[in-house]
Amino acid sequence: MSFAAPSDPVNRPTKVKVSQLCELCHSRKALIKRPKNLSKLCKQCFCLVFETEIHNTIVTNSLFQRGERIAVGASGGKDSTVLAHMLKLLNDRHDYGIEIVLLSIDEGIVGYRDDSLATVKRNQQQYGLPLEIFSFKDLYDWTMDEIVSVAGIRNSCTYCGVFRRQSLDRGAAKLGISHVVTGHNADDMAETVLMNILRGDVARLEKSTAIITQSSGSPIKRSKPFKYSYQKEIVLYAHYMKLDYFSTECTYAPEAFRGTAREYMKNLEAVRPSCIVDIIQSGENLALKAKKIER
Ligand SMILES: Nc1ncnc2c1ncn2[C@@H]1O[C@H](COP(=O)(O)OP(=O)(O)OP(=O)(O)O)[C@@H](O)[C@H]1O
């Protein structure tokens, strides 16, 4: 039996041949080899294990408090679409007692963000969650298209990322929400660890591997429930659950250095799947030496 993952610009279809029973239920045929640990599972067991792992991450790290309102940073892409679906499902299943709002930032990138926001609007209907959209134009009086036309495409990802993080905080504050949850996954985090090491910027490792962060001076907490979730598994889950997501690359393409780190990670993952989580763990465990005081 063979399985082809859905087409995706980052995760090319991976064919897996399995002709055994599922290692968990021992009754249904194994349909996939889990990218994370190569266990052979049927579709139902994979989805349940994946959901349970996210629930365990949420509980172990005490991510949510009962009665809390949380904003899901919703871009319409695979990660945040699965995140919105997952948090709604787990909140209902385990009674976290949280209120979920979809929060989208319109950076003003014609032909990209306008299309992905159309997906978020459909998700709003599908999941029955409230949606709030804030735009760079309203918050800063500039769209990303206008910024690029003046400053050029170089470093556009950096500007966009800084403004987007700030916009998520400002949007959440306007809604009276102090917790923003994003779909950053294990692959994103491992890439960031690699980039920081390659730049010699080890001081950033602690923050880049934290599951909960907060910018200095900001009342808004941010968390990443997919910290340990592999991108391939998120795409697989979205495919099995038939989730409606947008999968086109941004017009301004990914930052060149991140693109290189991503390619490198994919090559490493092909020979050693655990390297994604291993790199995150290395980032967590690498601590800065206390500086000697000069006399
Ligand atoms: N325009 C946006 N509005 C709201 N949240 C956003 C937006 N862009 C990104 N985010 C949040 O930041 C996370 C990481 O964004 P990134 O740009 O790295 O995209 P990604 O890894 O492709 O994620 P996704 O598949 O959700 O788009 C997203 O999962 C989402 O939670």
Automatic annotation (TrEMBL):
Highest taxon, organism lineage: Eukaryota
Keywords annotated in UniProt: ATP-binding, Cytoplasm, Nucleotide-binding, RNA-binding, Transferase, tRNA processing, tRNA-binding
GO cellular component, one term: cytosolic tRNA wobble base thiouridylase complex
Keyword tRNA processing: yes
InterPro entries referenced in this protein's UniProt entry, alphabetically: CTU1-like_ATP-bd, Rossmann-like_a/b/a_fold, TilS/TtcA_N, tRNA_thiolation_TtcA_Ctu1, UPF0021_CS
GO BP terms: tRNA wobble position uridine thiolation
Residue numbers binding ATP: 73-75, 79, 105, 183, 188
Domain tRNA(Ile)-lysidine/2-thiocytidine synthase N-terminal: 70-254
GO molecular function: ATP binding; transferase activity; tRNA binding
The keyword Ribosomal protein belongs to this UniProt entry's keyword annotation: no
Function (record text): Plays a central role in 2-thiolation of mcm(5)S(2)U at tRNA wobble positions of tRNA(Lys), tRNA(Glu) and tRNA(Gln). Directly binds tRNAs and probably acts by catalyzing adenylation of tRNAs, an intermediate required for 2-thiolation. It is unclear whether it acts as a sulfurtransferase that transfers sulfur from thiocarboxylated URM1 onto the uridine of tRNAs at wobble position.
Stated name of the protein: Ncs6p
